[in-house]
Amino acid sequence: MSILATIAVLGLLIAVHELGHFAAARLQGIHVNRFAIGMGPVLLKYQGAETEYSLRALLFGGYVGFPDDDPDSPIPPDDPNLLRNRPILDRAIVISAGVIANLIFAYFLLVGQGITIGFQEVNYQPGVLIPQMVAEENSAANQAGIKAKDIILAIDKQELTASRDSLEIVRKKIQNSPNQPLELTILRENEKINLTVTPAVNKEGQGKIGVMLAPNGEVIRHRPDNIIEAFSASATEYQRISQLIGKGFWQLISNFGENAEQVAGPVAIVAVGAELARNDLSNLFQFGALISINLAIINILPLPALDGGQLAFLAIEGVLGKPLPAKLQDGIMQTGFVLLLSLGVFLIVRDTANLAFFQGLFQ
């Protein structure tokens, strides 16, 4: 059920994105001849007065089709309501509407979370928790005698206060100290222990000790008292999530070689969402908001086959006073689509192979 719920959330986000394009076109009187949720074989289809609506087998995608280049369309090529015959601003609104719809929908998902179950908060306590060890027998942490459930109270004589900053202090201290001994004050079953750990060097030249780190504190839920507070709390949470996502994208772009392996495909996203839903179905609110904002950011990137790529073509048209040749645009878009599809297939295969179920088959 958790997997189906996650897939349903992803399908809903795609539907919202495509509905943004569709609504922006129809509200301006622009002809639309196809609206599809999903890709691949058709499961359900309905032919409206002008538009064919379809649900397809693979929910990881969708599209809104326009009759501009359809040779069988009865609409004359000089019709002012064809997308290509509209001013640049009208076309830009249609192209960017999917991104805008995802951003707006993410906010209202958080509003829904605030009204129904509230937001998680951490009642911070001093130190940083080690929830589990990484499975490395010869890790620096194992050699130093560190154990799961230990709490780091101080690192190199710097006390870790009851705040969210403590986790970042420990992480940076370890990363910046390869092959350098660090003194730790550990709390273990109400007993303080002094240990020395020497971080090993990872392939990027940073220190690592082989543990997971987490804030030390109790997770509580705070539910807004009224609808006004819910909208305000949702805006704060929206800003926090957006900043984290923006920071993540910047780290990926600025240090692609180190972070490329962290890029997740549809299978990994479903696996993460299913695990969150399995722990608490209400987690799907925040998961949906997170993926919706990610979807918006990815689509606005100026890459072929994405909304941002089409907006880039419009920007060039605005500067030159005329569009690029149709053959050149089609060639760029088709190349981009093939590359994007290839990346998607690679991520699906890689993430499927990394699932615990499949790893167990080959052990």
Structure description:
- The chain has 363 residues and is an alpha+beta fold.
- It has 2 domains: 1-118 and 223-328 and 342-363, no CATH class; 121-221, PDZ domain (Pdz3 Domain, Roll).
- It has helices at 2-27, 88-116, 140-144, 165-175, 227-254, 256-259, 266-279, 283-300, 307-320, 326-354, 356-361; strands spanning 34-47, 52-65, 119-129, 151-155, 158-159, 182-188, 191-197, 200-201, 207-208, 214-222.
- Strands 3, 4, 5, 6, 7 and 10 form a 6-stranded antiparallel β-sheet that branches. Strands 1-2 form a two-stranded antiparallel ribbon. A two-stranded antiparallel sheet has the order 8-9.
- Helix 1 crosses helix 8 (283-300) and helix 2 (88-116) crosses helix 5.
- The chain is elongated, with a radius of gyration of 25 Å.
- The model is unreliable at 256-271 and 344-363 (pLDDT under 50).
Quick description:
The protein is an alpha+beta fold. The protein contains eleven helices and ten strands. The strands form three sheets. Strands 3, 4, 5, 6, 7 and 10 form a six-stranded antiparallel sheet that branches. It has a two-stranded antiparallel sheet with strand order 1-2.
**Could you tell me the strand content as a percent range?**
15-25%
Number of strands: 10
What is Rg? 25 Å
Order of helices and strands: HEEHEHEEHEEEEEHHHHHHH
Q: Flag low-confidence runs.
A: 256-271, 344-363
Number of domains: 2
General shape: elongated
Oligomer: single chain
* Biggest sheet character: 6 strands, antiparallel
Secondary-structure-derived class: alpha+beta
Distinct helical segment count: 11
